[in-house]
Amino acid sequence: MRPLGKRPGEFRDERRTAHAPDGLGSGLVLVPAGADVALDLRFEAVSEGVLVTGSAVAPLAGECARCLEPLTSTIEVSFQELYRYLPDPDEDANDGEERFLDGEHLDLEPAFRDAVVLALPLSPLCSDDCQGLCVECGARLADVGPDHGHGDKVDPRWGILAKLEINDRAED
């Protein structure tokens, strides 16, 4: 951050590619560790420290929540974080709420991680119209077609109703 200076209003724009850290996501979708992440960043000197405004595009890998097929996609997130100059002597620098400049370097990983994890889909789909799996045999419905069926099996819980004879005539 040395080239930026400490005069409020000075800024520097940068485009960088970084490697994704481990553990970015969980469940059905994640950003693969070590994948290339495109960063578009603005570093701006403010009176309290350095304000970082950025956007990132990262690849996603996982499986569809309906049919469990592998899927790949990308995610774009924006983030903004203030990195303060050294804390006042009466402040605790490790309170976890604020981030501080570490000499001339900034650690953007926590801000990036927070933005990505909050933006990850809870139920990723391979396509918006994914029909999922057949409840009888587990076949992927997109592969077997609309005529897929298992006959007129009656759910055993409703089986006793099949034995009833219903009179369709209306009584006068």
If you had to describe this structure to a student in words, what would you say it looks like?
The structure is a single chain. By secondary structure, this protein is mostly beta strands. It has a domain at 2-119. It is 11% helix and 34% strand. The chain has helices spanning 109-119, 141-144, 159-162; strands at 11-19, 24-26, 29-31, 36-46, 49-63, 70-84, 99-100. Strands 1, 2, 3, 4, 5, 6 and 7 form a seven-stranded mixed beta sheet that branches. The longest helix has 11 residues, at 109-119. The radius of gyration is 27 Å and the shape is elongated. Pfam families: YceD. It comes from Trebonia kvetii.
Concise structural overview:
14% of the residues are buried. Helix content is 11%, strand content 34%.
Strand content: 25-35%
> Largest sheet, described in full?
7 strands, mixed
Q: What is the averaged pLDDT score? A: 83
Distance between the termini: 91 Å
Rg over CA atoms, rounded to whole Å, is 27 Å
**Approximate helicity band:** 10-25%
Stretches where pLDDT is under 50 for at least 5 consecutive residues are: none
Global outline: elongated
Structural class by sheet pairing and helices: mainly beta
Number of strands: 7
What is the helix tally?
3
Order of helices and strands: EEEEEEEHHH
